[in-house]
Amino acid sequence: MTTIEQAKETMISKGFLDVKTPEKMDYVAEINKLKKEKNAVILAHYYQEEAIQDIADFVGDSLALAQEAAKTDADIIVFAGVHFMAETAKILNPKKKVLLPDLKAGCSLADSCPPADFKAFVDAHPDHKVVTYINCSAEIKTLSDVVCTSSNAVKIIESFPREQKLIFAPDKNLGDYLNKQTGRDMLLWDGACMVHEAFSIEKLLDIYKEHPDAEIIAHPESPAHILKTAAYIGSTAGLLNYAKNSKKDKFIVATEAGILHEMIKQVPNKTLIPAPAEEDNTCACSECAYMKLNTMKKLYTCMKFELPDIEVDEEMAAKALLPIERMLALSK
Ligand code: 13P
Ligand code: SF4
User: 158-215 pLDDT, tens per residue?
Assistant: First the structure.
């Protein structure tokens, strides 16, 4: 009797099936081949799984990825990140194909800001300008005066005169941190990232007691009680730079655990401890389930079949482009 596996092998050997069985697939070699054949560039966020970061042409924080997307001359942009990132790349490159390995790779923070509700909020405050964190949908961007990321937010906010009233959305934790940093009183949308919200202050302090020689470093999407404990607060790229340049050699890192891959590469002799999440009794680290939907297999298949690709309504893309371009101009 012929098993399915034997039948598949026969079909492959006769050339009827050109997709190799997953267990036989050398994804690294195949993806590199497709990259060359199709003049594709792989842009990856630091929260992606290790193999994806390793095969990417460029790994960065949200700002660096948007800047890279704005200047690439590749024909195809493969975005190993979440939907709003790929959507931003598409808005910047309406003529290029932008692929996302898994279309379901969303973002809890972006989801916490439904466009109809946000429009009503903006309409209720006509004397306010609107600053939105890049972690939001294209539709929210069309309601924004300027977009920001965690690495340029202070600069973007300070580009407005002090007397200008501002709305900040969707992240209330980042917004609260920015109000403190800039001395402003921005109206905050009540959104949050489920990964950064989940850090346990009790467990964090327990770890700190065990490692009093460590410094806590945190992403500003974390709630105020976590940020209060941090010696440094910054974007993923900021956290990397801080760990690299600080004289300390032990850090408790309060952001998504994917960042540890690049951090270990950059500071191999330092001790890095992931901050613990509330519910986590196993690996003591926080992972973004959306970011982790992308896998090497999905990266390969999306490049091979050029699907799923990101589509943005033309009119919406043109409107959403303006606040993104303002951000890029202010970030030079
Ligand atoms: P940055 O890499 O810009 O710090 O953003 C972190 C994040 O949560 C992306 O979803
Ligand atoms: Fe969104 Fe948070 Fe995941 Fe970043 S880590 S993609 S903000 S859910």
Answer: 999 999 999 999 999 999 999 999 999 999 999 999 999 999 999 999 999 999 999 9
| The CATH number fitting domain 3-105+291-314, selected from 1.20.1600.10, 3.40.50.10800, 3.30.450.20, 3.20.20.70 | 3.40.50.10800
Determine if ligand 1 sits within 6 Å of the CB of residue 235: yes
* For ligand 2, mutation pick of 148, 173, 259, 291 (most atoms within 8 Å of CB): 291
Give the HSE-up count for residue 321: Cα atoms under 13 Å, Cβ half-sphere: 15
Task: Tell me which residue has its CA closest to atom 4 in ligand 1.
Answer: 235
Is the CATH code 3.40.50.10800 the one for domain 199-274? yes
11-22: average pLDDT: 60
pLDDT at 8 over 70: no
Across 53-81, average pLDDT: 98
By three-state DSSP, how is residue 233 classified?
Answer: strand
Ligand 2 surroundings by CB, under 6 angstroms: 47, 82, 107-109, 135, 193-195, 221, 256, 288, 290-291
In terms of CATH, what superfamily is 109-192?
NadA-like (3.40.50.10800)
Q: Are 78 and 89 in contact (CB under 8 A)?
A: no
